[in-house]
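Final report, Chapter 2: Outcomes

The project's central promise was a pipeline that accepts a single protein chain and returns its three-dimensional structure in a standardized token representation, suitable for archiving and comparison. That pipeline is now operational. To close this chapter, we reproduce one record exactly as it appears in the project archive, with the input sequence first and the structure output second.
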Amino acid sequence: MQVNTRFISKAFLFSLSIIVILSSTTYSQQNKNLNQIKSTTYLSEKFELGPGEVLAKGIEDIEFPSGHIGVKSFDVDLVDEQGNSVPLYETYIHHWFAIRYHLNKDKNMSHDIYDHSKPFGGPDYKRNDGTCNTWILPHYWGLGSESRGTSSKLPGPFAVELGNPANITEGWEEKWLFSIMVIDTRGTEDRKSCSECRCDQFNLPENFYNETKDIHGKPLSHEYKGGIFCCQNYFQCKLKNGFQAPYRKLALRYTITWIDWDQHQIPVRFYVLDSTDRVIINGSEVIHDCQAEYTIPENNSIDLVHVQKASIPMKKGGYLIYGTAHMHTGVVNATLYGQDGRILCTSTPRYGTGNEAGNEKGYAVGMSVCYPKLGSIKINDGETVIMESRYKNEFLTGAMGHMYFYLADRLPHTT
């Protein structure tokens, strides 16, 4: 059964200097461990798309390194049957998410990923440590059009620990799935509007607004102008009169680098914060009302930048090891601030200038990555951070402002 992803629907690398302060003993051991880094490239199951069509689905039980490992990087590309990278102006990568789950070996995965009434033995989803991780943004890795140009590499001895037998119930196994949304924009009347999932560009089903539920399970408002709800699986964006092109088969090609886990690795926790998070504090309870996306309205103001931000209390902090943002075309930047106003990480886009995949003109094809000097930036337990996303101040639907970052509880020994 395919996973219903309606509600989370959603090659250039920046050269960055990683400053690591280590003792000679630790540094030698680290180099020894780096020699053991492994890398494998996989191909997801193929999916078929025609001009103007949306694919928004889950791909279950994807190939993944086995054993007790530490993942150092996870990179994804969209390719055709010949293995060629597909340019964004032909098929737009709205988002891909890699989601971890544990499954009873005696049970089949036959449940909606967002069905909280699943019977005993169904998939147990292992979400990230962020504040929007229930069923909106539960993933460990995930980007969009910026995938090819954003580094996912974790520096030094830091890694995402996976496959620890002590954390897997006997009789269960650890698995992964992809949740993806891609839009074939060949021959569309307005390629940009299709990429933004503007509702008036799609041939929506009859009674769409009455039958479609919003993020809170209520009928979708007619004021909803665009976003993931108008880009559901196999919805059709309007084509130019007479345009015809063949269906084609595509797939996600993904490369994972990892190391067998040992005492020299330092585990990190992965966080996703959302600039739409409307935090409500009810006594000692903190409620996170994340929207996942938002609309920048048409306006005549003189402001060149639209700012969306949220104040988010962090239950548990740590040392910042890595940070970047998932944003859409039109992004200016995204910044994570500490409670005292200090900048923890700013991620800025690179826009394409050519025609080749990874450098498509006008598209956001990469986001910069923060690799702070080890120990220089720490988020305290209970600290309230500010997540701010900034776009050009022009009409935009389905805008996303997500900050991804890794925190570690400790640093390498320096003595």
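Archive annotation: Confidence is low (pLDDT under 50) at residues 1-34, 113-121.
This record, like all others produced under the grant, will remain available to the consortium after the project formally closes.
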